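From the pipeline queue, job 12 of 40. The input is one protein chain; the requested action is below.

Action: predict structure.
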Amino acid sequence: MKITDARVVVSSPGRNYVTLVVETEDGVVGVGDATLNGRELAVAAYLQEHLCPLLVGRDASRIEDTWQYLYKGAYWRRGPVTMTAIAAVDVALWDIKGKVAGLPVYQLLGGAARDGVLVYGHADGQDVPELLERFQGYLDRGYKAVRIQSAVPGLAKTYGMSGGAGVYEPAKGSLPQQDSWETTLYLDHVPEVFRAVREEFGYGVHLLHDVHHRLTPVEAARLGKSLEPYRPFWIEDPTPAESQEAYRLIRQHTTTPIAVGEVLSSIWDVETLITERLIDYVRCSVAHTGGISHLRKIYALAELYGVRSGAHGAGDLSPVAHAAALHLDLATSNFGVQENMGHLDPAGEVFRWSYTFDDGYMHPGDAPGLGVELDEEAAARFPYDRRYLPVNRRLDGAVHDW
């Protein structure tokens, strides 16, 4: 089953997406997500100039061999651009394999390990009352886990605010937006947010919160300790994870569960975090971590150490990546939770998907392959629109982690 064509489709139906389309001599078409928020064209060029020429003529059924060929053959390994490009190829080949077999991808991964995939949504507010109102909306829709973010009093802009659009999209404008930050204001505010939500809604729903890499290890330990009475499901990315050893200090001072991994791109980036049990959930993305083939190896390692999955699933991943994540979630024994932000209109004009949501759980569906199709004619109606993620500065003007 030889590959006869591999092409890259860049479109912006509500936000920018990069999609790899792989076609075989039998006319079977597979799709993979190659979107890297704010650096989309870097991955598109990596695919077009370096990987697509290598795919034509290869056997589409040899997924693991192709993965190793693209990874080891480049010599320059890892990194988000390389691993996102390889992920797109990997996911597209799994899509093809499922279509040829007439089976959904999760069946090829060993079959369902659960009936559905627990997902969490995002509730936010410019103040606590607005957050509580939006939180109720998620409960009304059946969510059993909700991420909570609130604007921090005293800061002009705060990470995670959707502006009421329902889907948070931070990438805006032709130049980066300038956000502001002050740690003391944040550390004082977040426990009050958790307290208000628990007083209003009790403990029957899981609460999650994204710190977004902004604290030092000591500050993160202080936050985790202060939130323990409110029993968070997790705090996400409390400090930058380039130094995995930093999490030892956090672990020594709090029992609040920790989730890390959305900006990490390989098993080596999370090895210490997992093997020393410094985190509770690994959040690597199927689209940025080498695809299904590599992410399932991370999950297998995590299972040995009691770490569960909690895959990144923001709107900056296309429906192709979301479907791939759901297939892997369904077949993973140490699954924890899946992020489900959704997609801005008119994404539904470009992508057709078969995954579903019901009463707090999602299912990838039973269509052969991933269950997602790309309409290339529709994609052509939405040309690329350059956008950047924000740049964060402390109140004194110094650049800080965003």
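Job complete. The chain has a mean pLDDT of 97.
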